Please model this.
Amino acid sequence: MSGASQNVDISFEAISSSTNGDGGVPHGELLSKLSEALWSKNLNELDAVREELINAAGADVFVDAVGVSAMFHMMTRIADGTGTPLDAGTDEPSADIRETIGVNHLVSRRQSAP
Amino acid sequence: MSTYATELPIRPELDAAHGDLATRWAAPSHSWSSKQRLSVIAEVRSAIDADELAPWEAPSSIKGFIANNHCLPDAAIDVIWRLTNHPGTLTKDWYESIISRNIDAVAYVELIGLVAQANCVDRFADGLGVKRVDLPDPIATKTAVTSELEVSVTTHWVPTAAIKGPNVLKALSAVPFENESREILSSVQYVPAAALIGDLASDHNSLTRLQIELIAARTSKLNECFY
Model:
């Protein structure tokens, strides 16, 4: 939706893996790699992507990107710790995207009652 | 005084927000004492740093894992470890099993809020390679204020208040203090509430909205979060 509102061509594959390119997002591959390194707590990977991202985009981008990823370590735990269901009315419009990024099989799948 | 000592360009409002969070963690609630709330944060740190237990291995099921004099109930420690290391594996049956072990549903919501915040703040520090936020000393008094908020189980496993907005912003609504803490972090690390749905185009800080949403989605997928 964010891409559509900015009239830019994006794809959702970068959400599935950093090996799928940048998804049309500036530094998308590096940002995806950074998210993976933060999640895995792999310090070697983190050091490498930190250096690469700072060189490519700047230290402020690195800091803010870590901030966003950390934020979603919080939001996912809030959603899954409280049994938060998908919002009513978003199920059908998001069906294709969910298929593309491969989340339909997740244990955490919860939909609103019709 | 800065919360973090680093040459990295951490925005002042983000630095201050993490300092505020540490102070809020020490604030006693109706459900948990200051010492217990700070113990939750310390236990999250242990869970992040330890070799992970498998999702089916609850700390309370491992002999000697939990100290006899721990100030938190065993069920709370089981929640902390499972939510920290395997958030995508939780089920409604698991939630109900926790509640059946004398954890009040509103106290559970507060616990989820604290664990989630600690995962955010500490993973930020770990990601930057800086020292985690210092925890304050516990506050001795316990608040006598009982929330008069009307909550009920409607859309989520947990009771929620009747507030408007996306379901995830309603998730902690039974404990407004923790919902405020979530919003404090969201406004400095993600986007302000007003921009959450109404403005999908504006850049925030050094990132474009597209970059922000890519990181958000990739991190959510890694945590196996359907929402």
User: Anything to note?
Assistant: The CA atoms of residues 87 and 112 of chain A lie 6 Å apart. Helices of chain A lie at 2-5, 13-16, 28-40, 43-57, 59-82, 95-101. The longest helix of chain A spans residues 59-82.
